[in-house]
Each structure stands twice: as C-alpha cells, then as structure tokens.
Design brief:
Chain lengths: 326, 360
C-alpha cells in the first residue's frame, strides 16, 4: 500500500541520478567531485532496485512468452499465453470478483475513513487515543486479523451471528456461500485499511487554512455548506491520492481471501472469491503453469496502469489545487 | 534445520523445483509423486533395489504401487511411513447416553443409531462428523462399498457418480440432514483437522481420523476416549480404510546420486527405520518396526492396534493432485454445508474431474 508514494519518490530519485551523471562531466572540479560522491552514495540503492525490481520484472516479461511448468525446460510459445488469457473464463471470473470487491471496498472505505477523520479532527476528549485505536488495524498482522474476522463470521457461534440472531439470520454460511463470501472479505479489507486513509485525510484536513473557514462564515456559510464548499474542494488532492492508493491495493487483494477461505475451499465455492492475485498464485503454485501465471501478472499490471491513467485524466474535473501548489 | 508445516512443504518443494534447487533427498506423498515423476525430477531407485537385493514386496502393494513409474514399473521411492483411518470416539458421551462402546463389528446401521442417540441439540452436541475432505472422510465409506473413491484405478474416470459412491454419500447426507452431523461452517472447516479439533473440544462424539493425530489425542483430550475400526458396509460386510504413505525419493539432478540412494536404503532398513519407530508419531512402513511403533506410546488403554488392523483391507490413495483436492472440498461443502442434493453435487464434481482427466 506504500507503493504509490515511493513511486513518486523513485521518479525524483532517478531524475537526481541523471543530473548527477551529467554533472560528472561538469565544468568545475567541485561540480565533478560532488557528482562523483553523490553517485557513489546512491549506487548501492540503484543496484538494490535493479536486483530486486528490475531483474524480476524482466524475467516476468520473458516467462510470459513461455510454456513452463518449473521443472521441464521452458518452451517458447510467443503470445500463446495472452491468447489463452483472453479466452479463459477463470481469468475473467477473477477480474469480475476483483471489480465487485473494488466497488464495495473503495467507496465504503473512503467514506468511512473520511467520516472518522472529520470526527477526530475536532476537539475531542481522548482524541490521540482514538487516533491510535483507528490506526492499530493497519499495523496488525493481516493473517491474525483475518483469522479473527473468520471466527466472527462463523454461523451460530460467531459475533456477527449473535448480532443477527434477533432477525433470525444466525445460521448464514458467510464463507461458503458464493453469494455472501465477498462481504466478510470486504469487511476485513475495509477495517484494515481505514486507519491509513484516515491519517491521510487528517493531514489533508489540517492543511486547510483556518481563514478560509472564517471568510466563508462571514459570507454566511455554516455546517453542511462549509463542508461542501470549503472542506471538500480543498481536500480533493488528498481524496485523489487516497483513491489512487485504494485502487492499487484493491487490485492486489490476496491475503484476506487466502486466509478466510483456507479452511473451506481456497478462493471460495466455484471460485466465487478468487481475486486476480489469488488466480495468479494458483496458476503458479497449484497448476505449476508459470508462463501463464506471468502473463496474468502482466495483465494485472496493465489493468492497474489503465485505471491509474484514467484517474489522472479525469482528476482535472474534480481535483482542486490551490494556486502554486499544483 | 527448519520444520515446515504440511501444506507449506508442498509449496516450498514446488518453488525449489522451479529454481532447480531440489534437495538430493526429499519426501513425496503418494498423491504428489505423479507430478515429479512425470517431469523427470525423480531418480529411479530400481537399480539400487536390485544391486542390494532388497525384497521390496515386504511393504505390500498398497504402499508401493503408487510409487511405480515407467514401462518397467520400476520402484522410484522408498515408503517411509503410512497412516490409516479409524474412528475416534468420546467414551464419556457413550456412558452418559447409556450406550455400548462401538466395536470392529459395527455396521453403518449401528453407527447411525448411535449418532442419533448421542446428538443433543439443546447443548449443541453432535453424534458424528465423518465426512471431511479426502483421506479421513467420506471416501472411506465409499471404499467399503467396494468402489475406488473419487477416481478409478486406471485414472480414466470419475467414480463419484457410481451407485456405491452415491449410496455412501446419501447415507452420510441423511445423517447430516437429520441433524446428527454438524455443517462444515459450524465445524469451521472442511479438513480432517477441523473435524478432529471439533471432537477434541467435546462437541461431537465420533469422528474419523488418521494415526497422525494419535499423539495429539493422547496429549490433549480432556475426556475418556478410544479408537475403533470404521463401521462395516451392511451389504459387503467390509470395513475399509484409505491408506496413505509418504516416501523418500532422490532428485534426478543430484550430484551424488549413489550416495543419496544409499542413504535412502539405509533410512528404510530395519536399523534406520527403528529410529523413527521408537520416536512414535507416524507409523513406519517397514513391517518389522510396527510393533515398536505401537509400543512407543507406552502404557495406554487406547486400542492402537486398530490402526494396524485397518491396513488389512485398505484402499490406496487413488492418484490425484491439488486440483482434485479442491473438487473434494467443494463436494463436501456442497453436500454438508450448502445442502445441495447428492446427485447434483456428484454431477458437478465429476464434470470437473473428468475434464481434468481428459486434459492429462
């Protein structure tokens, strides 16, 4: 989930490296010496990136053009894996499952985190305590948290079943029913992500200058109108960041599904909870179909890129940057 | 040295194989042997058996046939241990209900009557939980009708829709529908360990499970209990258990193939296997060590001999891999959680399994 901010930094980082490289041939000895030491100091990082990101990404591209079960020598099949992907109902099922999850997780998650951020931005007794409480799920182990949620969703004995008992719904088989399984998964994803988005919203809220509220009040605005005409527009750069991060992390939902359905049937009955990431994992480690799996990974990359580009294109319509900060 | 849980071991082995780093010697179970053998990753041990004049027939065919490969049906693995399935029962619950303890002569009807009598809905206590996924569960009941469960011996067709399979599943579904068995969701999972833990928690009187859980039961059960062979099919009169074995194999890429093969031969010899037998745990494949394994549990009233007796009329694992495993859990959940009628559930499972078999 920290991918996007670091991607921005990465961009700056490589820019600096290029400048440093050009300065190696700079005019003065001082420029050249500075450039040399600067580059010498970033070299370990660059090598690390190359080794842990560059090479694996290259291998993924390479493998996607092969039929390879991991043991026998790979066979070159050109774009065969991609052709198969387009006609594979299991792949499209996983795209559908991922989209359905996104449609629930992103709006509900963003709305809840904004509400919590607004509440915790007020002068409130024990405010720091509540901020910590809301952030705790973010730093909780996903495996442990998901197991706890799985128990909560157990029929008859679970917490949710107890809450639903008055309306007679205590025997719902949340995890095994294809029509219900995405709800517990969405719940744990939203719960775990809430604190992180809340912190981003809080930072955004605190960056809004007080005098804008004062000026709006003098103009006769209050309550809802302050929120609608001051808070929301000025918060929009943060909202945009949260949205991009939400989309990227929602495409990658894996652990929660893996853990929650591990004890019944992985990926849910009839693959009703098999997300793109889980589908990728299963093609690689259950079916030993590594070439195909690499093609799935590249398809995921393409979908993420497409969605991010769409958001950047449409941001002009609703994201408001104060002059000078855009 | 690192201890890896059962499920993770197989993922780890696949990643090792992918990176060309298979260990010189590793364990494969009978159901996973096929994948590695088919891809030429396993060394043929037959020349070594021949060179040292080992009588491989001592293990019995159920133990070694799944490890044969190629035209010559050479033996590629050395069986290291086995596990069979029996019924664990809570004696306290039988006492409280005033019932006689189960015997090895019990039929399905005796079992069903006891399950009904032991069920106590007011206290959320169930009579039995015997349907769990593959080895520990419903397949034993199918086997006792005389049909190889899930997939036929020739690996050409799904057998779940054959009359014996349907009869066994209908019998179990009947117990579930009558409320004598809990649903998968109530147990919390479809696996054999989930049912076993439900039994350990005192929530169900009878559960089918394997010898690998014997040490856990001895250590953790807080009630009086014992084990007995599975109930007999009323028509065939047979009590049958699925037997499953893990074996040692050597990597075909090993730099030291002779050394690896020799070590395997030592590990499964009387001397080598005695070491594991005396430590308890899983039963050794070497028949000479079986008594040592029974004795390793010390003074106990538990009828450990039942596991050995269950070997007698046992059914080997019909070869399957992870894909069929999923079909197994889905079948179990369909019938014992989502209340799908048996005929529909087996039709769905067979559709999937037959497609997989055809693709191979």
């Amino acid at each position: 989930m920290f991918f996007a901010p670091s991607a921005v930094k990465l961009d700056l980082f490589f820019g600096d490296c290029m400048t440093g490289f050009l300065n190696l041939f700079g005019k003065t000895p001082l420029t050249r010496r500075r450039a040399f030491w600067g580059l010498a100091l970033v070299t370990p990082n660059v090598l690390g990136l190359l080794f842990f990101f560059g090479i694996p990404v290259f291998i993924a591209f390479r493998t996607s053009l092969q039929d390879w079960n991991g043991i026998r020598p790979p066979v070159e099949i050109g774009l065969g894996n991609f052709d198969r992907l387009l006609h594979d109902p299991s792949f499209w099922n996983s795209v559908g499952v991922t989209l359905k999850l996104m449609l629930v997780v992103i709006p509900v998650g963003m709305l809840l985190s904004l509400i919590v951020a607004l509440m915790l931005n007020r002068k409130l007794r024990g405010r720091s305590f509540f901020r910590v409480v809301y952030f705790l799920p973010v730093v909780t182990s996903t495996v442990a948290a998901t197991m706890a949620w799985t128990w909560m969703f157990q029929p008859r004995y679970g917490l949710i079943a107890n809450l639903l008992e008055p309306v007679g719904l205590q025997d719902l088989n949340w995890i095994t029913r294809p029509d219900l399984v995405l709800f517990p998964i969405a719940a744990v994803v939203i719960w775990q992500r809430l604190g992180f988005d809340m912190i981003l919203f809080l930072a955004g809220l605190q960056a809004i200058p007080r005098q804008l509220y004062d000026a709006a009040r003098i103009d006769g605005a209050n309550g809802i109108r302050l929120f609608r005409f001051v808070t929301l527009p000025l918060l929009s750069p943060t909202t945009f960041l949260v949205l991009i991060l939400q989309v990227i992390s929602a495409i990658q939902i894996f652990d929660q599904v893996y853990i929650m359905t591990a004890r019944t049937t992985r990926g849910g009955m009839n693959d009703s909870a098999t997300t793109l990431s889980l589908f990728l994992y299963e093609t690689a480690f259950t079916d030993s179909d590594l070439g195909y799996s690499a093609a799935v990974a590249l398809a995921m990359f393409a979908i993420t890129l497409l969605l991010t580009l769409m958001q950047i294109t449409f941001q002009r319509r609703w994201v408001y940057y104060e002059s000078g900060s855009a | 040295m690192e201890v890896v849980p059962w499920d993770q071991y197989w993922t780890l082995l696949r990643t090792d194989a992918t990176s060309g780093n298979l260990p010189d010697i590793f364990n494969v179970s009978q159901d996973r042997f096929f994948f590695y053998a088919e891809n030429g990753a396993i060394l043929n041990l037959q020349p070594y058996w021949d060179e040292f004049g080992v009588d491989t027939s001592l293990w019995g065919s159920g133990m070694i046939d799944p490890y044969r490969w190629g035209e010559a049906r050479d033996l590629y693995a050395a069986p290291v241990n086995w596990d069979t399935i029996v019924m664990f029962y809570n004696k306290d619950m039988f006492d409280a209900a005033g019932l006689d303890y189960p015997t090895a002569e019990w039929t399905w009807d005796d079992f069903a009557a006891a399950a009904a009598a032991l069920t106590d809905p007011a206290n959320d206590v169930y009579g039995a939980a015997v349907y769990s996924e593959y080895q520990s569960g419903y397949t034993n009941f199918i086997a006792s009708t005389g049909i190889p469960p899930v997939v036929g011996a020739g690996r050409t067709e799904c057998t779940l829709d054959e009359p014996g399979s349907v009869e066994a599943l209908e019998f179990l579904a009947g117990l579930y529908n009558d409320g004598y068995m809990p649903s998968v969701s109530l147990i919390g999972g479809a696996s054999a360990s989930d049912s076993f833990n439900f039994w350990l928690a005192g929530r169900v009187a009878m559960v089918t499970n394997g010898s690998w859980n014997l040490p856990t039961a001895i250590e953790q059960a807080t009630f009086n209990w014992d084990v007995v062979q599975l109930p007999r099919n009323p028509e065939t009169g047979r009590t049958r258990s699925i037997v499953h074995s893990v074996g040692y194999v050597a990597s075909s890429n090993s730099d030291a193939a002779d050394l690896a093969a020799n070590l395997i031969l030592y590990l499964v010899s009387d001397e080598g296997s005695a070491f594991f037998a005396n430590a308890g745990g899983v039963a050794p494949a070497n028949p000479a060590q079986q008594q040592a394994w029974v004795d390793s549990f010390g003074e106990t009233s538990v009828n450990i001999q039942a596991f050995v007796d269950a070997l007698e009329d046992s059914q080997g694992v019909t070869v399957f891999d992870e894909i069929w495993d999923t079909a197994n859990t889905e079948l179990v959940i369909n019938i014992f959680d989502l209340n799908v009628p048996v005929v529909d559930a087996v039709a769905q499972a067979c559709g999937f399994i037959d497609a997989q078999l055809a693709a191979q």
